[in-house]
Amino acid sequence: MDAFMVRKRLLIVDDEPRFAAFVERVATALNYQVEVTHHGREFMKAYDRSPPDLVIIDMVMPDIDGNELILWLVKRHCTANVIIITGFSPDYALNARLLAEFRGLRSVTTLNKPVSVPTLREALMAPLSAHDAASGRPTAGDGQNE
After folding, report:
1. pLDDT tens profile 73-88
2. DSSP-H helix ranges across 3-142
């Protein structure tokens, strides 16, 4: 790996282990450092321990819903890019995106389950591409190692 290569940290919260593992595989292939959580409170602890560059939030979970996590991230002055994922109505994800953007979270993307590999890959690459453009430095996932 190039000495100037920056490895981005991704934090996922999704109560479906198979879907979370799918996202982890795709993100790892893009050279993200990935941490998977399956509950909202677990996500909060992981975030506080080491704030990520990108978060993926499932909107519907048993303990805390995605909107609550969005508001929690706002209180933490989150600077991470956010991807909101749901297997329910696309309107649900859109409303969450509007809430997140209105409250000041940046670069909010929505995806609906099921998500294809190319669609997920594109969503994961967007923050890396934006970082490349801003810094002029290569980042993990820029295709140089593939």
Report:
1. 999 999 999 999 999 8
2. 17-29, 40-49, 66-75, 90-102, 117-135
In a domain, 132, yes or no: no
Whether 2 is in a domain gets the answer no
CATH of the domain at 85: 3.40.50.2300
DSSP β-ladder status, 54-58 and 81-86: parallel
Could you report how far apart the first and last alpha carbons of the chain are, in Å? 12
pTM for the predicted model, two decimal places = 0.84
Percent of the chain with pLDDT strictly greater than 90: 69
Rounded to whole angstroms, the Cα distance separating 85 from 24 reads: 14
CA distance 33 to 46: 13
Site of tokens 């909101």: 84
Q: Please give the tally of structural domains in the chain.
A: 1
Q: Is residue 15 part of a domain?
A: yes
41-59 pLDDT, tens digit per residue, is 999 999 999 999 999 999 9
Interatomic CA distance for residues 133 and 13, integer angstroms: 28
